[in-house]
Design brief:
Layout: E1 42-43, H1 55-65, H2 77-87, E2 94-97, H3 99-111, E3 117-122, H4 127-135, E4 138-143, H5 151-156, E5 162-168, H6 180-189, E6 195-199, H7 214-217, E7 224-229, E8 242-245, H8 248-256, H9 265-276, H10 278-302, E9 306-307, E10 313-316, H11 322-331, E11 334-335, E12 337-339, E13 343-347, H12 351-362
Parallel strand pairs: 1-11, 3-4, 3-5, 5-6, 6-7
Antiparallel strand pairs: 2-8, 7-8, 9-10, 10-13, 12-13
Bound molecules: pyridoxal-5'-phosphate.
Organism: Streptomyces werraensis
Modified residues (N6-(pyridoxal phosphate)lysine): 232
Cofactor: pyridoxal 5'-phosphate
């Protein structure tokens, strides 16, 4: 009997080459799904505003919707002139992007590349390591000290390869805020050719008189850029729009690095309307700050150790109990952000959402093991 014919060797189909910078990259993670047995859901994972847009903002979006057969204004001219007037900054110092995460990517496109370093505190905003990896630059992460940026250690970690430093103020996820004097001392130590990005996504919620306001630090510091967003206090997270304010040369570089038409017309119109709704913004932020203090007080009364927060979220450094606590909250329908072995970040939402979280926290019993 002759041997059966050898099976044909099938070579793997050639695959497109993917940049090695992506090998270790995990996709951005949205919050854990949570739903109580009764199907209730309390979204406290993403630091969104619990308020729907003000009527004037909805009208602006509606009007802009009638024009979506046309491309948006790539220069965002009307919005930039509104921002310029509102924050008293020259128009040529402003650049708009697809969320402040979009502006962050534009900043990295402008200054980072393989062989350079990007420095930030850790733990901080999760977009920093993801976008830094994408840029091909090396990540230099300086541990927080008691939940606060360790500015001395960060200054000491700067090398001649450092192109960009993120300072998240208030810090996500710990909610801590840096004082102006400390930040000024730090900025004085950073070489003039290294960009410092002050990410102020939560600045509207700060109630600490000594806290730094990045816009006041810009004069005379061409290497400082302030990042602001419409996603949090302004309540436009779903439309993706944010902006940077910095030296005109930096703003110009950002405009070059912007993906064409990535800031859509609805977002631009809504942002202009939201900037004009100053009273609605004030009242909403005031409510959220009051809720933050109520949730903080109640948690402390329950015996939890909660970091005082300058943002619209609270940090519980639960360590080993983190997973159990997050699971317990998820089964009550409360979605929050958990960082295994470290702690949880819970947003300050509507009073009802916050009550659901407080009830879940009160009924938590750590598993014994
Ligand atoms: C939520 C958040 C932002 C906002 O990002 P957008 O892209 O504007 O939605 C920026 N920075 C930090 C630290 C944040 O937590």
């Amino acid at each position: 009997m002759s041997a059966p014919p050898a099976p044909a060797v099938r070579l793997p189909a050639p695959m497109p080459r993917i940049r090695s910078a992506l090998d270790k990259l995990v996709s951005f993670r949205q919050s854990e799904p949570a739903r109580s047995p009764e199907g209730r859901f309390f979204p406290l994972a993403a630091n969104e505003s619990p308020y729907e847009p003000a009527p004037a903002v909805v009208r602006a979006i509606h009007e802009a919707a009638l024009g979506v057969n046309r491309y948006p204004d790539h220069t965002c001219a009307d919005l930039i002139s509104e921002i310029s007037a509102r924050f008293a900054v020259p128009e040529d110092t402003v650049a708009v992007g697809c969320g402040s995460v979009g502006v962050t990517q534009m900043l990295l496109e402008a200054v980072a590349e393989p062989g350079t370093e990007v420095l930030y505190a850790w733990r901080s905003f999760e977009a920093y390591p993801i976008l830094t990896r994408l840029s091909g630059a090396a990540r230099v992460e300086v541990p927080l000290k008691d939940g606060v940026h360790d500015l001395d250690a960060m200054a000491a970690a700067v090398t001649d390869r450092t192109r960009l430093i993120f300072v998240c103020n208030p810090n996500n996820p710990t909610g801590t805020v840096l004082h102006r004097s400390a930040l000024e001392t730090f900025l004085d130590r950073v070489p003039a050719d290294c960009l410092v990005v002050l990410d102020e996504a939560y600045i509207e919620y700060v109630r600490d008189d000594e806290a730094a306001d990045g816009l006041t630090l810009l004069p005379g510091r061409p290497n400082v850029v302030v990042l602001r967003t419409f996603s949090k206090a302004y309540g436009l997270a779903g439309l993706r729009i944010g902006f940077a304010v910095g030296h005109p040369a930096v703003a110009d570089a950002l405009r070059k690095a912007c993906l064409p038409f990535s800031v859509n017309g609805l977002a631009q119109a809504a942002a202009i309307a939201a900037l004009r709704e100053r009273e609605a913004l004030r009242a909403r932020v005031e409510n959220t700050v009051a809720e933050r203090e109520r949730v903080h007080r109640t948690l402390t009364g329950q015996g939890w150790d909660v970091t005082p927060s300058s943002a619209n979220f609270l940090w519980l450094g639960l360590g080993e109990r983190t997973g159990d606590f997050a699971g317990h909250c998820a089964s009550a329908g409360v979605a929050l952000r958990s960082f295994a072995g470290e702690g949880v970040r819970v947003s300050v939402g509507s009073p009802a959402d916050n009550d659901a979280f407080l009830a879940a926290a009160a009924s938590f019993r750590p598993k014994r093991g």
